[in-house]
Amino acid sequence: MNFASFAEFVAMxxxxxxxxxxxxxxxxxxxFNVGVPLLAKRRYLQEQARRLRREELK
Amino acid sequence: MNWTWFHKLGSPKWFYQTSGxxxxxxxxxxxxxIGVGLVWGLVFAPADYQQGNSFRIIYIHVPAAMLAQSCxxxxxxxxxVGLVWKMKLADVALQCAAPIGAWMTVIALVTGAIWGKxxxxxxxVWDARLTSMLILLFLYFGVIALGQxxxxxxxxxxxxxxxxxxxxxxxxxxxxxxxxxNSLHQGATFKLTEKPAMPVEMWLPLLIMLLGFYCFFGSxxxxxxRLEVLKREARSSWxxxxxxxxxxxxx
Lengths: 58, 251
Hints:
The complex is a heterodimer of chains A (58) and B (251).
Chain A: H1 6-11, H2 16-57
Chain B: H1 4-8, H2 12-44, H3 58-85, H4 88-120, H5 128-149, H6 153-167, H7 170-180, H8 200-232, H9 237-250
């Protein structure tokens, strides 16, 4: 463990703002990249499910 | 060497089934490696004797930057495969990897700017390394825009492949920019021929993060490619069966 206390960990030796903003933005981008294909797949399957139901009715 | 795997890649069905088996493990590896790397890099790695704690940005900056370049190389390889062997899957890989690579370049540029402020005193300098990375971002934008602008799939695949192959000249420029020009940017952390200049407690979490980012890239790329394959092969019977099963679960 490199830090004596949690407050020290958050402060990152006066570089807290830089370190945490860099990590925050990066994790957001990573999460976004996971979310986009997941949502796209869901949307596509929902579309296809609707199409299949329509075809069954005919 | 046995090339059957390469020829099997020509079959979207084989790709879809195999990637479906790989994806959960790849995603699990990515989550574990990035989780361990984050905690290790942020909490346990020692502070740098000159840069203090701001150096911890390295644990995302370097993996993102390396991945951004590897991803572009992959685009170029996919471009060659698509042009030479007319493999449809190569274009799927190229189109699906480009946005991920662009996002990785954005992470590298943004974290680099945030790291530059406390270290160099400036968010941005028109330095060779930074400028060539910015060009990489524009190359990614070019590939994405070109892919979306041309509606005919074959011509779009060909145009994107050519752009990806021509743009690969930028990769050695990025790599050697710190050696060729007088640069603020520090040299490479990992070299194939030498031991890292950092102590092991610093570079081991970096290596873990690096592996984690590559696994992340692999999983996200497979997720995108699998959906694209489903869309492109919508008329084949195996996709219809797949869709019916998946859509049935949904409703």
